[in-house]
Amino acid sequence: MAVERLPHIFLADSAEQSNYTSPVGGGGELRIPKRRRQQHSRKLKRQFENAWDNAKQTVEQRTAVSLPTKSGIYLEFKSQANKDLMVQSLENIQSGIRLLNVKEVEQADAKVIVATVYIPHGKESYFLKRIQQYSEEQTKTGKPKHAKLIKSIEDIRLAMLASFWQDPLDLMPSVAAKWCEIWLRTGATKEEAEETIIQFKTLCASLEIDSNLGVFS
Q: Which pLDDT tens digit goes with each residue over 128-146?
């Protein structure tokens, strides 16, 4: 059956910028869970290192079959149920660490905040150092360093496709092919943007996925 190709819809001058606000807290004091300091530090360090090792193996597998790879990995940070996540502290633009999306997920009659973060290779020490400082160092007021950030993180894992999906998960294509809108993060220059588009179209072609790319300036 022939697929009807419809034109892209472009909305000009319609964007508005606003600061992130927690969907759980509803204002007032942050909801940061209490933690057993050393136990929590070991848990997050182990989860981060496992996710990083798994990502490296994935990159090696993709390189072996000549698939394009990103010079970094994507991790998913989750809050405890009905608690806040210090999402703004997950980003460090100077180090190239970018907060890509934040969403609220329903889990067993509770709400969990999930943030997807891109970390360039060589910058993994940013989070490992903060976990270690929380474990071992004090602020001038005698509190653990980076306490709000580290205590707000319940789990760390390697981001999967569902981490980037913004609609309800039951709308994600499975066996039957569906048209989807994909937004690509590109570099600051035209050349970097063109390279990202080429890599995306090459990947789609290698996986036999039809792509009809519309470019937003």
A: 999 999 999 999 999 999 9
Cα distances (angstroms) measured from residue 29 to each of 25, 26, 32, 91, 104: 8, 9, 9, 22, 19
Domain of 202 in residue numbering reads as 179-217
Co-location of 76 and 54 in the same domain: yes
DSSP track, 32-48: -----HHHHHHHHHHHH
Q: Does any domain span residue 11?
A: no
In a domain, 111, yes or no: yes
Phi and psi, residue 193, nearest 5° = -65, -45
Q: Strands 72-78, 98-107: parallel, antiparallel or unpaired by DSSP?
A: unpaired
Cβ atoms of residues 51 and 158 within 8 Å: yes
Contacts of 216 (CB under 8 A, 6+ apart): 10
Low pLDDT (below 70) residues in the chain = 1-6, 8, 10, 12-28, 58-70, 187-188, 213-217
User: What is the dihedral sign for C-alpha 53, 55, 56, 61?
Assistant: positive
Query: pTM for this one?
Result: 0.72
Distance (Å, whole) CA 194 – CA 202 = 12
Cα torsion at 117, 123, 124, 128 (round to 10°)? -110
User: Total structural domains in the chain?
Assistant: 2
User: Quick check: is 13 in a domain?
Assistant: no
Amino acid letter for position 109: D
In this structure, are 192 and 137 located in the same domain? no
Confidence at residue 171, expressed as pLDDT on a 0 to 100 scale: 77
